Task: structure prediction
Amino acid sequence: MKIFLLFTLFFIFSCAKTTDELIESAKREAKFHLSSKSCSKARSALQDVGTQSKDPVWIGLMSSTYACDAGYSELDTLFNSGDISKLDATKLLTSLTTFSSSNETEADSDAYNNLKTAINLILNSDGLAQPTAAGKIAKFGQDPGTDLNMQALYMILVMTGKFFAYYGNTNAVGAKGAGTLGNSCIYSYSATDAAEYIAAVYGGKTCSSTGGGEGSDDLEAPATAAEIKTKMCEGIIWFNNLLNILSGITLSGSDSLGDLGNVEAAITALLDTAEAAETSAGGVFNDEVVSQDSVSTLRDITGQDECEAIDIAKIEKFYTIVFEGMLE
Amino acid sequence: MIKIASLLFIISLNVYSSEVINLGRSPRGLMMGDAYTALADDAYTLYYNPALLARHNGFTFTPLNPMISVTNVLQDPDRFTNLGDNPSDFAESIMNFPLHVGMNASPGFKMGKFGLTAIVNYNSNLYLQNQIVPMLEIDHRYDRGFIAGFAWPFWGSFDSKKGGEHFAMGGSLKYIQREGLQGTYHLTSTSLLDAISGGDSGSIIDSLGKVNGQGWGVDIGFDWAKSFGPSNFFVSLAILDPYTKMNTRDNEKNLEVQAQPMQINLSSAWELKIGPIIDLTLSAEVYNIHQKKEGDDYIRDFKMGLEIDTPFFDIFGGMNSGYYSYGIKTNLFLLDIQLGFYDLEIGERLNQIRASRVFLYLSLLDFTFDP
Result:
């Protein structure tokens, strides 16, 4: 009788899971669902335990659920497709637009927005106004921080390709303006210095707002000025965070990463050249006050809000000197 | 009774994990769905329930009993026919397929109600999950040590061969030296890519953060056994690792060796002589009775087993978390051979992730002296 009473006590005093155990359980559940690409089930499992802003694994998994909704998968999208091997550090934007995932046919598609959410979850996880790779490592530790940075890096490569393929209207080999959308430039520029730079440097092109329809239709009316600035800042944020992550981690020497290891040095040199070009020719490309020093101002901006606080004229000139040039 | 209730609150140091990796598992137990806490009166007694030493008389020596277990690739033979020639192809092959390799030996002896078993257990599990951001889960451990136990019947007397009735309690003390590696690694992140480029498996394990530790622990068990004519009936309770403290040596990454989570397992078994040459054994067990269970947890934590014992070979079958196990044993004078297949649930819920394994066990030169 005493034996059965003893056994009964075990059932009565059975232990429920602690909070930490529930969180670990939720993460395992999410990984299981992500293994079969059940994106919403994975997200529900993580949401059941609430936001875990100090848990890098939770953050990475939550980001994965949105990337899953975007149809993204590291192995399929980058490695199995062979896209990572297309990466060319000397022609970064052009090579990214040739990725098989650079296939947007509309602005703000579900795939684009979900991937944007996935990336921003990681970028903003360090809690800094200007997210940095070092900030994540400082907050989460060397290995977990590096894992988050790498996860974001791969998604940003895909996102940058999507962005510039669509707004640059590139074709299968990355030629700007040769796609099916009709625009020959990313934007129809109105800032004075921007227009002067294009006329002087890009072989007679205008890319001007007065020329009619040379920029992407999604970066002109009926889109509002605020919407246009938001869009253009997204391009800058993907690009700058890509460089910031590459500068903040030490990449493996593995062959499977293609030319990724050479990107930071190549683009840093390019930006240095762009900064010098902006102030060259007696300052003729830098005498419009509102757009002065656009490259030096914007090259280190990694936060969307910080970018949108900057005058549109600077953003326009940054696009003309850096992005239009990289896609030429 | 109040003291017992208090004790139940104190010893709630349990850890929920998808697969609990024990210091050792009996091959007979694995073939019987691991419903073995009431039946483990073999070389693996001290891994399951020290109270079962109370059924032992005389002297038993098990000097050599190696066992090897691996993933049962026959469950999915097409998966490995083309592994490709690059890491991503290989990842596709092993995605969602638990990989396992284990080797262990448990040499030891029992003298009356006292037992001593050496622990030599190598166990490595790999599991690649998450199609979006592939994550490789690794649990590698190499344990060495010993378990020493003693049991005493509170009342009565029971012998495995002669029967009787007793209620016994047992306890054991264990020492574990552990070399371990446990973590989740992003397949495409720098830490794993750098480690893989390091060369041999030893270098890879070191690069990923292998740590060493050691510790002491205790187990407690209870056993009620009674003969009813040609049959024996058992009810046993084992409280494993209510206190096992592992201390990790200082390391760069401040990692810890894997802990030994507490288990409280309740089991019953029935042995029956059907005829002059056939014995039948049935067993059932509830795993971790102290953990709150909901819905499918009751099925997940329930095990059952069957053994048909004939003069030439024994046939086993069982069910563990809804998955089947089976195998065969034959005894060739001083050589005991067992071959078994068993499946485990390693996911968070019932029928989530199935790990299929096969083992081969050899025991040489066992002998028993019972005056």
